[in-house]
Amino acid sequence: MGQGTLHIDYLPTCSSNDLVINPDLLQVIRNAPSSYKKLDSLGIVYCKAVDSGNYKLQASSLIGMANVYDLYMSHPEAIQRMFAYSSRALEVSRTGGLLDEQFRSLEQLITMFTSYTFYGPALEYGEQFLELSQKVNDTVRMGEAYMLMGRIAREERRFADSESLLFLSLDLQGTSKKSRRNVSYAHLHLANLYQRMGRYGESIAQAQKGLRSAAFEQSRDVNYLLTILKIQIIDTYIAQNRYDFEELLEEIKVLVKDNAFLMEQGK
């Protein structure tokens, strides 16, 4: 994935109001009007920000567009666009000295590369995330870095390293919403780790801790986190040949229904 090539090919074409996208991907996005409208509006914001030299708006709009493409990652061009937008957002954020946008774009890149098993680049960005958080002495972000790197170690089957990193992440968190989100994800990754290691009781206990930490507000992000934690418990049950998870399935159905309502409300 050459960054320069991707930037040229996939960044918004500000000379035109049209979204220059692969026709197949474009049709998929057009079938979801909210996604199409969001891409269109963010593209306009980005182009205006380029014209005015506003680095913050450039970075935030690129991050927003990358988030939209994250919904369509089964299409190869969506993956390339997400990478192009996130990496360009990181460059712009560094040029403008924008701390929050640097963290957000780094998190996008780490998550994307980890999900698609490119662990080398994921770890490189993870180390950059950790270095930046140490530079500004942000312990919550340090904990997030260790959580992200713990997930990478788990996927590489470095189980002892993964466990150490994830517990280190938990040790650095506080009580803010950001911290509670990080805590929930650390417990989720520990639950998955212990399932892979055959430590099923500990896996379920970690997922339950994640559920308790995640229930701090009503939003789509939180509902998504609650959903995947419950799915993790179901997966661990199945690994033990247990199939008494009807109640969990009903709870997941409610979360999915709530998410559809929250999407309509724009929350």
Kindly report how far apart the N and C termini lie. 34 Å
- The total of helices stands at 13
Strand content: under 5%
- Stretches with pLDDT under 50, minimum 5 residues: 1-8
Pairing-aware structural class of the strands and helices?
Answer: mainly alpha
Outline: globular
Approximate helicity band: over 70%
SSE order, one letter for each helix or strand: HHHHHHHHHHHHH
Give a description of the structure:
The radius of gyration is 19 Å and the shape is globular. The protein has 13 helices and no strands. The chain is 79% helix and 0% strand. 38% of the residues are buried. It has 267 residues and is mainly alpha-helical.
Secondary-structure map:
Elements: H1 3-10, H2 23-30, H3 33-52, H4 55-69, H5 76-96, H6 99-115, H7 119-135, H8 139-155, H9 159-171, H10 177-196, H11 200-214, H12 220-239, H13 246-265
Helix pairs in contact: 1-5, 3-4, 4-5, 4-6, 5-6, 6-7, 6-8, 7-8, 8-9, 8-10, 9-10, 10-11, 10-12, 11-12, 12-13
